[in-house]
Amino acid sequence: MTPASAGSVMAALEIMKSEPERIERLWENTNHALARFLELGFEVGPSESPIIPIYIRDNIKTFAYSTACFQAGVFINPVVSPAVPSHESLIRFSLMATHTQEQIDRAIDRMYEHAVKLGIIGDQQEEPETVGVLNPS
CA dist 2 to 5, 6, 10, 11, 16, Å? Predict the structure, then answer.
């Protein structure tokens, strides 16, 4: 480990020890986001961290979804094959203690809009929007 990396870790541990309210706030944010995702019908996977896995279960839709969300101002990490089988593809929604509930709600609302448009959640009887080009230009 480089001296700079070791120094960063030591500083982070000191902040965690001296400011426990950050950890409490992080878990409040995580629980709030998790409740919102479940309320809106997202398929949330198991997690024991502030990184919430949300199953999309289709590689192409996962890429289209993460691109659409990014264009709407929400950064989420796609996880697709070969890291996982295509039918287990997902995105990871990561939280920080410094996020406000308003920011979290705004991000989840935008994610919901695109999930419905792409046929990821919502009325599965309706025809989802056509998935366009994955790399924005």
Answer: 5, 6, 12, 14, 21
pLDDT in tens, 12-43: 999 989 999 999 999 999 999 999 999 999 99
According to CATH, the superfamily of the domain at 3-117 is: Aspartate Aminotransferase, domain 1 (3.90.1150.10)
Residue 52 CB contacts under 8 Å (≥ 6 apart), including other chains: 30, 33, 34, 37, 44, 92, 93, 94, 95
**Tokens linked to 58:** 């289709």
Block residue for tokens 């101002």? 73
Instruction: Classify 90 as helix, strand or coil.
Output: strand
Tokens of 20: 């426990």
pTM for the whole thing?
Answer: 0.81
